[in-house]
Amino acid sequence: MNVIVMVDENWAIGKDSDQLVYIAPDLKRFQALTKGHAILLGRKTLDTFPGGKPLKNRRNLILSTREGYEVENAEVFRSIEDVLAVAPKDTFVVGGASVYLQMLPFCDKAYITKVQGAYPADCHFPNLDEDARWRVVEEEGPFLHEDLRFSYVTYQRV
Ligand SMILES: NC(=O)c1ccc[n+]([C@@H]2O[C@H](COP(=O)([O-])OP(=O)(O)OC[C@H]3O[C@@H](n4cnc5c(N)ncnc54)[C@H](OP(=O)(O)O)[C@@H]3O)[C@@H](O)[C@H]2O)c1
User: Which whole-number Å values give the CA distances from 30 to 27, 79, 81, 92, 100, in the listed order?
Assistant: First the structure.
């Protein structure tokens, strides 16, 4: 499986149930990379999507323990085991923090958007630069968009 995430220089990913920043070209790239693939996300991250709705043109696999919780145009799973039983190999894990942590062991490619700067944050992604099981295979950037400098760094499990 793949994982895709935007981190700041401390590998922070969110604050108060929202993203740290939104960068239009990065959102475009996210759409392009994940389109046509399954995406896997936690219930709280779904709440941050426009209108709290699943993304179009891809299979949305949502994790939630809530009883009776259903989402139109998405499939809801109650456990990692349940979702692993059906998730295709090319699924993209798209967050949030709790789902990244649980799913990282099942991922072998990581698409990391690194934003320069340190933001106030309350959740993080594991620092792959300090993890010998991961190595950088591609790096693009830095790019500049509305005063934000960011790079696309792709990691592969060794
Ligand atoms: N920087 C980025 O690229 C990026 C991407 C995505 C999200 N984020 C950020 O991440 C933060 C949200 O992360 P989060 O950890 O609070 O929430 P989350 O991972 O999106 O969702 C957590 C919820 O998912 C469900 N869940 C998680 N593990 C489960 C399991 N094993 N079995 C069944 N259900 C499970 C539970 O839902 P129930 O409570 O319904 O049981 C849990 O409360 C936000 O700040 C968001 O903006 C950042």
Answer: 5, 25, 26, 10, 16
Domain range for 102: 2-157
Q: Cα of 50 to ligand 1 centre, how many Å?
A: 16
Its pTM surpasses 0.90: yes
Mutate to test the pocket of ligand 1, among 6, 98, 119 (most ligand atoms within 8 A of CB): 98
Note whether 136 and 114 are within 8 A (CB).
no
Count of structural domains, the chain: 1
The protein residue with its alpha carbon nearest to ligand 1, atom 8, reads 96
Question: pLDDT, tens digit, for every residue of 15-28?
Answer: 999 999 999 999 99
